[in-house]
Write a structure and sequence with these properties.
By secondary structure, the protein is mainly α. The chain is 65% helix and 2% strand. 17% of the residues are buried.
């Protein structure tokens, strides 16, 4: 029975006890006049009440909820006094706490800012202690003088220029394979020799030429390693295109490389090519400089170069590069010279600055300059709840290469998933050791063992830790993992070359 139906009965009259007011007027607690001069007002017609109720629900109910408008005078008159009292006194609705995952709330920018402020303040104490003890050691001119020390003998720069030989060799091998003057087996042998030379030649040069500095060695070896991965993808993709052409396939079966039809990319200046029209010097060198390791015939292209975006990324590159050099000069060098507390250096902060400088500022700068459309250089690795998720999302170009040219081919050959993942970590561990030990000319295998230790760590975190506990474990591995291993290499290098002087 509705409230309005109850109003007609004696029970309703007893429940609605009135309070005597001045002038013979009796009012209910909510202010509605029910009695005047002691005469009770007759109840409204039931038919009219039903009509008003239906009209209120149909015409006004949905509008009030969606638009949030206040009810009109007619709506107030048609509503029950108990409903109005209940709404006036209500202040609670069904809802979850913001920090609960069920709430759907995701704007934690203030908490992120708090973490950044706490990180800065926690390192400010170390910075002040360092300034008081050593003074200001930041000297940009000193860094520039290292490169200008012998302007007529830059072995690292010469080594980088020689890399064009291997780039052109890969292009000409593919041209011979496209026209059929070289068999697939012979072309594969040539590619294997070219790729092996990309790793052996620079490392042998760095180990034999004494004038190559560690910084120059790391830079040149890094470029040669990137070229190795790029040229491997280049020959692999072109081989897939030859297989498709030979089979007269109309659709792509292996990758999104070698599209069969033209696609619109928002700009008329970028023409789409098909195999073997891609085997040109322009196409090859665009791929060499593009911020990706995976080759395809037609890359997504942005319609124009945004000058403001380009200037911002350039400013970030210069600023963070100088910040990295300053932190190394001010914090790492004096601490390593003392050889007393090598693990108190905030090298994890340096690692985070390096990540932003390289993966966001530098790679976006190059991509904008080349109008390279795919800007997914990293994902939300900071939310990683497993070690596998971190390694799959913090360096997207390398992850795509491993997935496309190493991991999935192993799965297609029948290798189980765990062995394939272990093989990926093994290759990654090799290149980590290769990029550190060769330029420093000492072999400690700490980077190799640190990467291989990720395999049991990934199993443990994925099996026993979930949610925020898994994320905390990933952060702990980042803080005390690879940065500490790099610092150990630098510490031993300094002791080996400058231990007697200190």
């Amino acid at each position: 029975m509705s409230d309005r139906a109850e109003m007609r009965g004696p029970t309703a009259r007893q429940r609605r006890t009135t309070i005597s007011g001045g002038g013979g007027v009796k009012q209910q607690a909510n202010g509605a006049k029910w009695h005047h001069a002691g005469v009770e007002k007759p109840p409204p017609c039931p038919t009219k009440k039903k009509t008003d109720e239906a009209s209120r629900h149909v015409n006004n109910g949905k509008a009030d909820k969606e638009k949030g408008q206040q009810p009109t005078d007619n709506q107030r008159k048609s509503r029950s006094p108990l409903d109005e009292i209940s709404e006036g006194l209500s202040c609670h609705v069904l809802q979850e706490s913001l920090l609960s995952s069920a709430s759907g709330y995701s704007n934690y920018r203030g908490i992120l800012n708090w973490c950044v402020v706490m990180l800065v303040l926690s390192n400010a104490r170390l910075f002040l202690e360092n300034i008081i003890k050593y003074g200001i050691l930041v000297d940009p001119i000193q860094v520039v003088s290292l490169f200008l020390k012998d302007p007529y003998s830059w072995p690292a720069a010469c080594l980088i220029i020689v890399s064009n030989v291997f780039i052109l060799a890969a292009l000409y091998i593919e041209r011979r394979l496209a026209v059929g003057t070289v068999s697939e087996t012979t072309g594969w042998i040539f590619h294997i020799f070219n790729l092996a030379s990309l790793l052996i030649f620079p490392s042998a040069t760095i180990l034999t030429v004494t004038s190559v500095t560690p910084v120059g060695g790391i830079l040149s070896l890094g470029i040669y390693t990137v070229l190795f991965l790029k040229l491997y993808s280049y020959q692999d993709t072109n081989r897939w295109c030859r297989e498709i052409r030979q089979a007269k396939a109309k659709k792509l079966t292996r990758s999104y490389s070698c599209p069969s039809v033209a696609q619109s990319n928002g700009s008329a200046v970028h023409t789409h090519v098909s195999y073997p029209g891609n085997l040109t010097h322009r196409d090859m060198y665009y791929f060499v400089f593009a911020p990706t390791l995976c080759y395809q015939l037609n890359f997504p292209r942005s319609p124009r170069i945004r000058k403001r975006f380009l200037v911002r990324r350039l400013f970030e590159m210069l600023f963070f590069m100088q910040l990295l050099v300053g932190l190394i000069q001010q914090w790492m060098v004096p601490t390593i010279q003392n050889s007393m507390k090598p693990f108190q250096v905030p090298n994890h902060l340096i690692w985070l600055i390096f990540f932003y400088w390289f993966f966001h500022s530098s790679m976006n700068f190059v991509a904008e300059l080349l109008q390279f459309g795919d800007r997914e250089f990293y994902r939300d690795w900071w939310n990683s709840e497993t070690v596998i998720y971190f390694w799959a999302n913090w360096n997207i170009p390398v992850h795509k290469w491993c997935l496309r040219h190493f991991y999935k081919p192993m799965l297609r050959r029948g290798v189980n998933k765990f062995l394939a993942q272990t093989a990926v970590f093994l290759v990654s561990a090799f290149f980590h050791e290769y990029l550190v030990s060769v330029p420093l000319k000492m072999f400690r295998l700490w980077a190799f063992m640190g990467m291989m230790a990720q395999v049991p760590l990934a199993w443990f975190v994925g099996r026993f830790l979930k949610g925020i506990y898994g994320n905390a474990a990933v952060w702990m591995s980042l803080i005390i993992g690879q940065p500490v291993a790099v610092l150990m290499y630098v510490h031993d290098y300094y002791v080996m070359h400058h231990g007697n002087s200190t």
